[in-house]
Design a protein that fits this description.
alpha/beta; TIM Barrel; eight-stranded parallel beta barrel; 10 helices; globular
Length: about 200
């Protein structure tokens, strides 16, 4: 399952800063790039994560992830439409799936993912969302529905909001802009690691 602190980055260069700090789970989310750039970025990220014993999760680009020897991918609902799940399973790839409503959750569970993500729990500035903030109570309902499958909470999280996510059933909190747009990203990562591993963010 993902680490309690699950970081998303948009370029492999971030990993040179964050991995030495102790980050153990990171998703590489690359948008609007050529295939050659994607391959270079994924390959570099895999090398860095392997060297630091960090779980690397590739967003969407499952064929390239397989080609580059990665072990994890993340699929959104639209990604599922184009993904060949038989090929992904045959390659031994573990995968997580995003969900926002009950129909998407039911669809995701049919694919037996390694984890389920729910979001946005809070308002997010990452991108325009057609969904309102889901709220903490929905995390509890999702956890009751998925049982032992790990639950990842995403959307609008700050370190002081992490405890609420864990208390409502999340196994992991996923963070993007709170780190990448912070004035001091490295210190923010250290704060997140302290919060999620000290026990102050829930059991």
């Amino acid at each position: 399952m993902p680490d309690r602190f699950y970081l998303i980055v948009d370029h492999s260069s971030w990993l040179e800063t964050f991995l030495p700090l102790g980050v153990k789970c990171v998703q590489l989310r690359l948008k609007d790039q050529t295939e050659s750039v994607l391959r270079q970025q994924i390959g570099k990220a895999r090398e860095l994560c392997d060297a630091h014993d960090c779980k690397l999760i590739i967003n969407d680009h499952w064929r390239l992830a397989i080609d580059e020897g990665c072990q994890w991918i993340h699929l959104g609902q639209e990604d599922l439409n184009a993904a060949d799940m038989k090929v992904i399973r045959k390659a031994g790839i573990q995968y997580g799936i995003s969900t926002h409503d009950r129909a998407e959750l039911n669809r995701a569970l049919e694919h037996e993912p390694a984890y389920i993500a729910l979001g946005p729990v809070y308002q997010t500035v990452l991108k325009k969302m057609p969904w309102r903030p889901q709220g903490l109570a929905k995390l509890r309902r999702w956890k009751n529905s998925i049982g032992d499958t790990p639950l990842v909470a995403i959307g609008g999280f700050t370190p002081d909001r992490a405890a609420g996510a864990f208390e409502h059933g999340a196994d992991s909190v996923c963070v993007v802009t709170d780190v990448l747009l912070h004035a001091d990203p490295a210190s923010r990562v250290q704060e997140w690691l302290s919060v999620t591993r000290s026990g102050s963010a829930g059991s």
